[in-house]
Amino acid sequence: MRTNQLALILAIGFLIVSGCAGHRTITTDEAFWEISPAAPLPQHALTDQLPNLIVRINNVADLSSSYRNYVELFINGFKIEPESEITNIKRNYLYKLKLQPGIYEISGKYYASTGWKIKKFNLRTKEQVLVFPDKKTTLDITLCKDSWGGLKEKDVFFDVSYKDQPPKRKK
């Protein structure tokens, strides 16, 4: 019994001493990686965010040789639907997304109806795409097609640009 009491007193003493030992100290540079938020942002703060990724794919389809051609966009393996309704003569595709800051893999597929069969072409970025909370990341591509509506190259690349995003106006 006496041994149990002694062990209990030592355990309580250890907890008190370790609790008073102080907090871990980090530098200001380490704070971003080491400190997590106490709670997530409220939902309205996230939904009020301006789009920080814009993807434009131009010259997809038309009324002549590119009739029925279309594009699919993928971000980290997820297929993304365009903002507006897609018809089989939709010339330009536009995607405005609100993404969490981070590094993303973005790609696309261009499907060209070239006579009797559909040919598939790759739309890619030269490197992973960075999305920042205070910048707008824009991916642009204009498809250069041959007389059949297929692309001149099997792989074509997005132009990627980053611009500061103006603060959102209060309502």
The assembly state of the depicted protein chains is single chain
Q: How would you spell out the order of helices and strands?
A: HHHEEEEEEEEEEE
Biggest sheet overview = 5 strands, mixed
Instruction: Estimate the helix proportion, in percent.
Output: 10-25%
Radius of gyration, taken over Cα atoms and rounded to an integer in Å: 27 Å
Looking at the structure, what is the overall shape? elongated
Number of helices: 3
The amount of beta strand, in percent, is 35-45%
- What is the end-to-end distance? 70 Å
Count of folded domains: 2
Question: How many individual β-strands?
Answer: 11
Decide which structural class fits the backbone.
alpha+beta
> How are the strands of the biggest sheet laid out side by side?
3-2-6-7-10
Parts with pLDDT < 50 across at least 5 consecutive residues? none
Keywords:
2 domains; elongated; 11 strands; 3 helices; alpha+beta; 5-stranded mixed β-sheet; 18% helix; 171 residues; single chain
Q: Can you characterise this structure?
A:
By secondary structure, the protein is α+β, with helices and mostly antiparallel strands. The chain folds into 2 domains: 33 residues, no CATH class; 122 residues, no CATH class. Helix content is 18%, strand content 35%. It contains 3 helices and 11 strands; from the N terminus they run H-H-H-E-E-E-E-E-E-E-E-E-E-E.
Q: What's the quick description here?
A:
The chain is of the alpha+beta class and 171 residues long. The protein folds into 2 domains: 2-34, no CATH class; 43-164, no CATH class. It has helices spanning 2-20, 28-34, 43-47; strands at residues 53-58, 70-75, 78-80, 93-97, 102-104, 106-114, 117-124, 129-131, 135-142, 155-157, 159-164.
